[in-house]
Amino acid sequence: MENLTEPQVWAMFGTMSIAFALRSIGALLGLWLALRIAANIRASEEDNMLAKVLGSIFGVLMVMGAAYWQVAYMAYRADVANGLKAMDATLSAGGQRFADRFASADPVTTPGALLIVYDPTVLLIILGSIWMKKKA
Fold first, then answer.
1. Distance (Å, rounded) from C-alpha 22 to C-alpha 74?
2. CB 99 within 8 A of CB 81
3. For residues 123 and 56, what is the distance between their CA atoms, to the nearest angstrom?
4. Taking the CB of the first residue and of the last residue of the chain, which one, N or C, has fewer CB atoms within 10 A?
5. Contacts 24+ apart (CB under 8 A), 81-87
C-alpha cells in the first residue's frame, strides 16, 4: 500500500468488502441449511445414526466456515487500517477515524465479542436439535 493513494485504498477495500459480503451470504445460507437439516433429522420418526453423524459434521463445518470468514474479514480490515496509518500522506478525517478504530499491532486471530457468542450458540442449536432426546 505504500505507493497507493487513499482513494485507491478505499476502492480496493470496497471491492474486497463486496467479496466478503457475498461470502457472508454464502455462510448464512450454509448455516440456514445446517439448521434445516437438524430440524428435519429431529422431526424424522426413525432414529438414523448415519444421518445424525453426517448432519452434525455438516453443522460443525458450516459454523467453522462462517467463523473463518468472520476472522478473515476482520484481519483484512485491520491490514487496510494499518496500511492507511503507515501512509506518508495526510489522511482524510474518515480515513484517520478508520485507521484509529481498526488498526492493530497484533494479528487478528479471533472474531469480535458478539461473534464469539453467536457461533457457539448456533452450533449448540444445531447439535442440540440433532442429539437431544425427543419428548415422548
1. 15
2. yes
3. 9
4. C
5. 83/1, 83/4, 83/9, 84/1, 84/6, 84/9, 86/1, 86/2, 87/1, 87/2, 87/4, 87/6, 87/9
